[in-house]
């Protein structure tokens, strides 16, 4: 991991902490991993790359349990490949940092379609192979080149007069 990548990662973590997306404690832990973890990874052997697992990152909380029950366990049962759930949140900055590092640790990201379109256009996400993924099982209009919607949500602006 280059110093520039480390700096960008720390800046991204800092912004998430300021927005309240992660606690100060989480910031400290993640920053320590960014700054101290690199030497350990550089000394690791090829066995690290041979791990039979996929890492799926989403926004944490109940989503970890739900995604594991809906996708992870079934995939592991069918393929024997473990699906590790990561609840650290796939922000555009975090995805870009992983891509630019040249050694991303996430395999699947729960990212909104708008971010997927932006990152995909920059070559940071691989397109979905719809010869493998059955697009007929998706709600029509919700399967994009770099994203597939698995749930719906909205933002509501309200106020108490």
Q: Any overview of this molecule?
A:
The protein is mainly alpha-helical and 161 residues long. It has a domain at 1-45. The protein contains five helices and three strands, in the order ααβαβαβα. It has helices spanning 3-18, 24-43, 62-79, 92-101, 113-121; strands at 53-57, 82-86, 108-109. The protein has a three-stranded parallel β-sheet with strand order 2-1-3, with helices on one face. α3 (62-79) links the parallel β1 (53-57) and β2 (82-86). It starts with a helix and ends in a 40-residue tail after the last helix. Mean pLDDT is 79; it is low at 37-50.
* Through-space gap between termini: 51 Å
**What series of H and E elements makes up the topology?**
HHEHEHEH
If you compute it from the alpha carbons, what radius of gyration comes out, rounded to the nearest whole angstrom?
Answer: 17 Å
Q: Tell me, what's the shape?
A: globular
| Percent strand | 5-15%
Q: Structural class, from secondary structure content?
A: mainly alpha
Helical content, roughly? Answer: 40-55%
Q: Please give the largest β-sheet.
A: 3 strands, parallel
Instruction: Provide the spatial order of strands within the biggest beta sheet.
Output: 2-1-3
Mean pLDDT: 79
Residue windows where pLDDT falls under 50 for at least 5 positions: 37-50
- Total DSSP E strands: 3
Q: What is the number of helical segments per DSSP (H or I, 4+ residues)?
A: 5
């Amino acid at each position: 991991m280059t110093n520039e990548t480390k700096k960008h990662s720390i800046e991204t973590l800092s912004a998430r902490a300021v927005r309240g997306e992660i606690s100060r404690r989480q910031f400290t832990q993640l920053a320590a991993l960014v700054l101290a973890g690199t030497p350990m990874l550089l000394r690791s052997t090829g066995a690290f790359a041979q791990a039979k697992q996929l890492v799926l990152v989403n926004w944490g909380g109940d989503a970890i349990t739900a995604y594991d029950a809906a996708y992870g366990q079934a995939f592991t049962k069918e393929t024997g490949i473990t699906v590790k759930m990561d609840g650290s949140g796939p922000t555009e900055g975090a995805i870009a940092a992983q891509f630019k590092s040249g050694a991303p640790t996430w395999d699947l990201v729960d990212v909104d379609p708008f971010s997927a379109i932006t990152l995909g256009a920059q070559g940071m996400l691989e397109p979905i192979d719809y010869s493998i993924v059955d697009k007929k099982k998706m709600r029509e209009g919700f399967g994009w080149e770099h994203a597939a919607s698995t749930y719906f949500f909205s933002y509501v602006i309200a106020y108490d007069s």
